[in-house]
Amino acid sequence: MATRDGAATLPQVLDAYCRLAAPPDGWRLLIVDNGSKDDTAALLASYADRLPMRRLHEAVAGKNRALNRALDDVLAQPDADDALCIFTDDDATPDADWLLQWQACASAHPDHSVFGGAILPDWAAPPPAWLLPLIPTGLTYGLTSPDLADGPVFPGLVWGANMAVRRAVFAAGHRFDVGVGPNGAEYAMGSETEFTRRLAMTGHRAWFCGAARVAHHIRPHQAGIDYILRKAWRFGRGKYRQEPPGRFVELLDVPRWMWLRYLLEVAALGRAMLAGDAGRKFSHRWELAYLRGYFHEAWHGAPRRQKTVLVSSYSGELGGMELRMAQEVRYLQAAGYAGMLAVPQFDGVTGWRQRLAREQITVAEFSPPAFFEGTWRWRNLRRWRAQWFAAGRLLAFKASLVHVAFCWTTYGASLLWLAQRCRLPTVISVHNAFPAIRFTSWHARLLRQAFSNVRGIYAVSDSALAHFLEIYRPFIPPSARLAVIPNPVDIALFRPSPAVQLQARKRLQVPQQALLMGVVARLSEQKRPDMAVDMLAVLRGRFPDLYLVLAGGGPLEGALRAQVARLGLLPWVIFTGFVEHVQELMPALDMHLLMSRNEGFGIATIEAMACGVPAVATDVPGSADILRGSRGGMLIPANDLAAAAAAVGDLLADPARRTAMGRHGRAEAVARYSSVVVGKQVRAFYDGLL
């Protein structure tokens, strides 16, 4: 729980916690003091030896900010993913069996992630008899309806005074929106409902458990008319915040129908006043307060929720394209849009999702049936399933535009077609130089449909765009915007650093004076890491102190280890596995080598250049787009190992040339590939497309 100046209600709540029946595996209590000015700190200290309590502090006012602070503490402790995080308030008193009921409910419904419990009233003074039938007690006091039965529940009916969420949800990166909810002043309502609805959008299901009960303390002044109308006004503000833009025709920034409703409510209020009907008069005042809150937020409050771009793909692994997709979301957010990622489940996605969560980037799981990609067997059935089942899931994201990233020739076409069926505009990014393909009449018909809503296409290199146009030109609308936008590199993160070089070589256990050749790439067929091992075998006679580091994981790792052993290279080849912080490795290299058979662009190449490391790559599309004419690296033959090894050997033997190459590479990375430079290109591409 978060508490701010809660000394008046906390004693009753904490006394109830002292009487709780503990579940078999125990429990712990996290209370975040959110900048209290009363005796809250001393009060909490007095209960420290009676409860399994940890006290945290968050000085900046905001309930959601305080809860996010507590979640950081939760995730820092080892625990099972299905463990429950129970949320409550500093004026909500639980029943003695509260924790046991929560545990039983969560155990009985392992396929649900979000749970709502019963919230009953604890009136400090009896309310007027006429009041309760006239107001929505849920919105006003956070009380659950006595008619709400156990079972699946609309996520908007799960409220923060008695809510449980599995730890895995937060481990996946979800957090509370700090822009809504109590913040020590006037605020827009919708704290937990914004959160639970967002979880529902990403596939998490909610269940109501009536046996887990708390009593919400309602103070005397909260039964007054002024308080209730103010709450209606706050509800209107929160409603505006959560309303998706573009849903209704607007007049002066609010839905046109609301103006008619406002006039009707004013007229009805006048009739009630003339009739002396106090009940009807109050009901209409409540509706008008709600509408005024909505109007206020539209005109004077936070900007309307930005248009949302959903960035998605047919991903199978965490690679350069996925990293670029995340960067796309960063650029969109910087440009004032809302962006989120939606990808299938794949190895490494959980850790990636957690890392992006620190930046408030959401990664949702989305795996629509694929009928273009892979085998064509049962393609009509899969298309039917996509149309009738996956379409609703796509629409639930409430995206204004769908960005489809193509990692291979047709890998993305099914999603593009699905977006068109949902009448959503699309853009395409092309991340490889695709080989030619012939389409059947069945595919051609669907491709004409899929591309009809495409507003723009950009590729990460000239070669990638040329290959894509060669394949898809007949289907691309003449009005579609075309661009080449390279992958970016963070030049502040990737930079030359003798200190980083020294530390990295110590970690790798490589002598400081040795020559170190590195391959930062997934260990897959496309990257041909086996050729890098063969090159090391050729060069070892000329350079006995030459080492090779293979930084990456992938399906070829076992075969590569066998190859290294067979060639007698075990002491000179270092397998690092996946490296999250490549910037802590790259400066240690004397040369970066990429032996790919094809590339869309080659992010590792520009990362090496940014670090002042000579970049060497095979003369194939993608890599050639970066290094042809570059003074920061060189191209080598793609299929002639002897010639390639001779060129690499000459470079290794010439330290002055490598130094100059590194200096020029850094300058080119700053001028052409920095995040700032590429970000401007991305923003210009989207300008006018939404």
TrEMBL record:
<feature type="domain" description="Glycosyltransferase 2-like">
    <location>
        <begin position="5"/>
        <end position="118"/>
    </location>
</feature>
<dbReference type="InterPro" id="IPR001173">
    <property type="entry name" value="Glyco_trans_2-like"/>
</dbReference>
<dbReference type="InterPro" id="IPR001296">
    <property type="entry name" value="Glyco_trans_1"/>
</dbReference>
<keyword id="KW-0808">Transferase</keyword>
<dbReference type="Pfam" id="PF00535">
    <property type="entry name" value="Glycos_transf_2"/>
</dbReference>
<dbReference type="Pfam" id="PF00534">
    <property type="entry name" value="Glycos_transf_1"/>
</dbReference>
<protein>
    <submittedName>
        <fullName>Glycosyltransferase</fullName>
    </submittedName>
</protein>
<dbReference type="GO" id="GO:0016757">
    <property type="term" value="F:glycosyltransferase activity"/>
</dbReference>
<dbReference type="InterPro" id="IPR050194">
    <property type="entry name" value="Glycosyltransferase_grp1"/>
</dbReference>
<dbReference type="InterPro" id="IPR029044">
    <property type="entry name" value="Nucleotide-diphossugar_trans"/>
</dbReference>
<feature type="domain" description="Glycosyl transferase family 1">
    <location>
        <begin position="504"/>
        <end position="666"/>
    </location>
</feature>
<dbReference type="InterPro" id="IPR028098">
    <property type="entry name" value="Glyco_trans_4-like_N"/>
</dbReference>
<feature type="domain" description="Glycosyltransferase subfamily 4-like N-terminal">
    <location>
        <begin position="319"/>
        <end position="492"/>
    </location>
</feature>
<dbReference type="Pfam" id="PF13439">
    <property type="entry name" value="Glyco_transf_4"/>
</dbReference>
